[in-house]
Amino acid sequence: MADTESKLRNEETKTYIEDTKESTKVDTVHQDEAMKVLAGYVGEETWSEQEEARLRRRIDIRLMTILCVTYGLQYYDKAMLSQAALFGLRTDLQLMIGNRYSFSAAIFYVGFIVGAYPAMMLAQRFPIERVASSIVTTWGICLILTVVCHNYQALYAQRFFLGLLESGISPMFMMIVGSFYKKNEQAFRMGIWYSCTGYVSIFSPLVNYALGQIKGPLSPWKYMYLFAGAITILWGIALLWALPPDPVRAKGFSERERYIMVARLRTNNSGVRNTHIKKEQIWELLIDEKFWLMFSIAFLSMIANGPISTFTPIIINSFGFSTLNSLLLVMPAGAYAGTLQLIVPWLCYKYSNLRSLLIFACQAGTTLAALLLWLLPMKETGALLFACYILPSVGGGYAVLMGLQLANTAGYTKRSVASSGIYIGYCLGNIVGPLVFKPEDAPRYVPGFITVTVTAIVAGLLAIVYRVSCSMENKRRDRAGVLEGFEHAYEDDLTDKKARRRTGREDCSRCSAAQQSCNIRPSRRQKRRKARVDGNTTNANRVEPSLPPISTDLETFGVDDTEFPVLAQVDHPDGSTSSSHLRQSQTTPFSIDSAHDERFPQYAPASGALDPNTSIVRNGDMDAGFLQVYGPETQFDAESQALVAQLEHRYSHELHPDLHQIFSEVYFNFCYTWCPVLDRNTLSAEIARSPLLANALALASSHIQPPLLPHDGPESYYKKARKIFYEDEEADEMTTLKALCLFYWWAPNAPSRVHRHSSWWWTSVVIRHAQQMNIHREPARDDLNRSRLELGLRRRIWWTAFARERLTALCQSKPAIIDPNDCNIPDPTLADFPEDDQSQRQGEIFIYWVRLCAIIGRVAKALLQPNKSAPLPDVLREELIAWIHSLPPHLKIRIESAQTTDFDRDVHQLHLFYLTTIIVLHLKRSGGQLPQALPPAILAASCTARILRDILARGNSRFLMAITCWHIGTAFIALLQACRIPRLSTFANRDMDILSVAIKQLQTMWGSANVIAYGFDRLRNPSCAGASGGRQANPQSLNSYLARADIEVREGNGFDWMRFFPFVSKLTNGIADSLISGKEQGAATRGFPSPDNELFHNTLLAQYQDLFDPFIDYNVAFPDMSFPSASDSHAPMG
After folding, report:
1. Residue ranges under compositional bias (Basic residues) (predicted)?
2. How far apart are the first and last CA of the chain?
């Protein structure tokens, strides 16, 4: 039976894959041809490092051999002039007059310039192996034709066309290397084939020495050209079959090897091959300042190549050596140059952040050689030979420069043109170089070596400028939170410059007013996430800048004490809005309306967007500017996203169909109100397609309500989902965000341990990714992309992250780091939610919750202002009062003495956030004692206990979120104050009994509950004699307490704090009866000043600050902390 089921499953999978292949058309205009390989592969998608290393060695053997031979022949052919000059070429072709010889060397590179771009266009448009074969064969013919030249004019023409034909080889080789190797592998491979310029100079003198001995009818130099041309023609024909063009079409590799070759290049984010020329990428290159820096380095450094390739044998001959010996003495220079051109790229491959520094070092070597050749007397033959041998040091730097250009440029067309552009700089340098060595300056060529000295120094300094420029750019990106992602590595439309733009986006109001470019604000925390790197790379470069001062500006508005605002409903038929009440500062009073809109009454401001507070740190000369971000250009390629998702089966999820249904129901019943990121209509299809989302949904739902069916449990689901996320297995970024939002329901560890498995950590990750996808900024109304975005979903995701961040700011006493000026996303409205009744009802609660969290964020901001003694602005209390009174009737609660009959789980949870905020506003700490609770705090804490009693009475509290532990801990601190008042002690202890039961139930869910429960035991048992009426050792009367409270508020204006509690009456409980006696009609009391607030959890977490560092665990020894007892009430809390 099992075998039959297995066969059926395999047949279904095979049929599905075949159908997918038939129905999926890979767009190779906007995507790379590598997608064809991904689409056609049906085997195992994973591979080991050993398997990749074996494949890389095979590529090295196949490819490097071909490239080395071809490039060696090229250099042999073009450098033939300098050696043939010793055997009569200059006299036979009248090159001894003026600058004719120098110009014959320079005109070769004029042909290089003319032919570079056409050659690259041909290589991109047609099979590169055919283009290379044709070019090499043709230049071999051109080389043979040198022997028919009888004057310098004919030689000029031959050299021009030889340069034109050879011009495309180096850029094509750069493109081939970029198509086969990863970024960190490219520099060394570039150096391998480029080193042949030196090593060929070891063998070519020997060959030409032998050919120079021929005594025949032709001049010796003609035999040299005939031999070189014949070999080149034969090799050019062989290239047609021998050259592997790219991983897609390379012969001799199995289907699996081809798949690995393509798939491993995803991290390059630069594509493998695209045959379509894109003009916009060419224009983009022309305005790229880093390209011009590299161009200048190539130009200036190659001026030294004039004496190296054209005059070295002549210079050595001028030292007094014979013609044949001068030829042999060139060999050490070739050995040095070739070895240096291998070692320098190898150092770049082995060690990071050295490229620009090594270019500078190579320029320094050439500078030293030029100085010696310029200043030393002619009798110092040994030193002058040494100078000639180290003069080619510049070649090692140029080998690195080629790889640096490839690594820092994305977009196939842009890379192709940039490769040719660098070669144009190379050519211009080689044109100028020979021309500065004039015959009249022989044999010392002083002006020529002065020129080489100056240009080599300037080129070295420009390499340092390039490094500094890239380093500054990387730091700017780190502050902006740009991450490297590889999901669209084969989408060739994305270039390094395009990745930096946000076209089609409205600038925020602040930047628009200042007429500035709208850039993402740096994180105030400035924390850095450790980069995921390979090999020996360490995290030594991590930086943690200090925290800048926190802004204390507050939005203000006017509110009447007797009437409560209800803003008119703002409809969004197109899913947009012209203004955002949740973002903008309120400078005008609310409009007054006594009737509530039945759909939803608008209210209160929140604030807006966060740049990710962690990012990858990149240093050195590697420009990370083009690394993939989630911009509008790459967001809509649904076909490729679906294709990649189908190809990623590493973490297949075979959940029972009933489990999917159970998990979905649990989510929509218990989670949707606080995390409305999934859609009932599309959820089944999404979890079938996405293992990440399926496991994330399973972890949240199984944690809240474990099903009776066999299942893996939330921890197992969490590990699977987390692994999928960190290994970039999910192709669709929006699906990734949805899944990350669900990670909030998994926090197995206590807050005493700093880790990356906490809900706080995942909230920061969600914000970081949401901002990278520009979710906090919606397209302009006339943007064509607007109709393709799920605007409602984007708003629900963003405001979910915003609300959690604001809560984190208050419960952790952290700065509220989301800046309203960074975003233009509209407020959430009911139009953003599905139209079914349940979604609309839950959406309404979510909208009010977001508005409350906006107020909570402003409270957190005020509490963190430097002047702790300054009172909190009255506007914060008025905002809370306005919020509670703006609730429509069906979202209001009434707390009576009897058990609640019209209990609504979500509505009661909503009020927990409100009550906790009231407690925070009215806790006062002084003299090292526990925070003193003022009357509103005690009453709010009692109401919190009452709501929890209603929840516990219904037998299920697992749906309560982790932040409920904060509600309970904060309420407990306020009720401790009531224990000292005999008239309130009995009621306070009963309420604390409820809190104790609630926290014990939460201990089965959340690690933070263990800390709160431990604090309960340490703080309560010594201070209260019993659970049902004990007294503290230092009791005080209610009148005495109220008198002291009146002293605290005497300087405030008249303020009726009972307006906080429209749902409370004297019948609620004994605490309410005692505290509000005579105040039911709103009799004024004094306003309460700002507390120097110390929250319960903040005291416990005081020994560490960095909640977002995921790599070091800080253990706080809570058992050793000294909590105060009644006999030690004046001792400071530990």
Report:
1. 522-531
2. 64
As to burial, measured by CB atoms within 10 angstroms (0-12 exposed, 13-18 middle, 19+ buried), residue 14 is: exposed
The pLDDT of residue 317 is above 80: no
1113 pLDDT above the threshold of 60: no
For the domain 49-474, what is the CATH code?
Answer: 1.20.1250.20
Q: What is the DSSP letter of 321?
A: -
Region 903-923 average pLDDT = 88
Half-sphere exposure (Cβ direction) of 110: Cα atoms closer than 13 Å: 15
In a 10 Å sphere around its CB, with 0-12 CB exposed, 13-18 middle and 19+ buried, how is residue 942 labelled?
buried
Label residue 636 exposed, middle or buried (CB < 10 Å: 0-12, 13-18, 19+).
exposed
In 3D, which of 634, 689, 693, 641 has the Cα closest to residue 663? 693
Return the higher-pLDDT residue of 529 and 928.
Answer: 928
Cβ atoms of 902 and 910 within 8 Å: the answer is: no
Cβ-Cβ contacts under 8 Å for 1060 (sequence gap 6 or more): 877, 880, 881, 884, 918, 936, 940
Q: Looking at mean pLDDT, say which of 61-70, 654-663, 868-877, 949-958 comes out highest.
A: 61-70
| 465-495 pLDDT tens trace | 988 888 887 777 655 544 443 333 334 444 5
If you search the block for the tokens 């009959």, which residue do you land on? 901
Cα separation of 353 and 397, whole Å? 14
List Cβ neighbours of 600 (8 Å cut-off, separation of 6 or more).
569, 829, 830, 844, 847, 888
Rounded-to-integer distance, Cα 181 and Cα 262, Å? 10
Residues 554, 559, 565, 569, Cα dihedral to 10°: -40
The closest alpha carbon to 392, from 464, 298, 451, 306, belongs to 306
Place of tokens 């055997």: 87
Q: Which of 405, 360, 359, 415 shows the shortest CA–CA distance to 622?
A: 405
Distance CA 517, CA 791 (A): 24
Q: Residue 891 in contact with residue 910, Cβ under 8 Å?
A: yes
Nearest CA to 1099 among 1115, 1116, 1083, 1086? Answer: 1116
Distance, in Å, from the CA atom of 1119 to the CA atom of 765, rounded to the nearest integer, reads: 32
pLDDT of 300 over the 80 cut = yes
Q: Is 72 exposed, middle or buried (0-12, 13-18, 19+ CB in 10 A)?
A: buried
Task: Please check whether residue 938 is in contact with residue 1075, taking contact to mean a CB–CB distance below 8 angstroms.
Answer: yes
1036 pLDDT tier (thresholds 50, 70, 90): low
Nearest CA to 975 out of 988, 993, 985, 956 is that of 988
DSSP, collapsed to helix, strand or coil, labels residue 752 as coil
pLDDT average, residue stretch 637-656: 49
Helices (H) and strands (E) in the chain, counts: 44, 4
Per the rule left: phi > 0, alpha: psi between -120 and 50, beta: everything else, 511 is alpha
The 10s digit of each residue's pLDDT in 575-617 is 443 334 454 333 333 333 333 333 333 333 333 333 333 333 3
Backbone phi and psi for residue 505, each to the nearest 5 degrees, phi listed first:
-110, 140
1060 DSSP 8-state letter: G
Q: For the packed helices 691-704 and 714-726, what is the interaxial angle rounded to 10 degrees?
A: 150
Determine how many CB atoms are found less than 10 A away from the CB of residue 498. 20
Among the residue ranges 83-87, 156-160, 383-387, 654-658, the one predicted with the least confidence is 654-658
For residue 1085, what is the enclosing H or E element? Answer: strand 1085-1086
pLDDT > 70 in the chain, percent? 67
Measured distance CA(738)–CA(741) in Å, rounded = 5
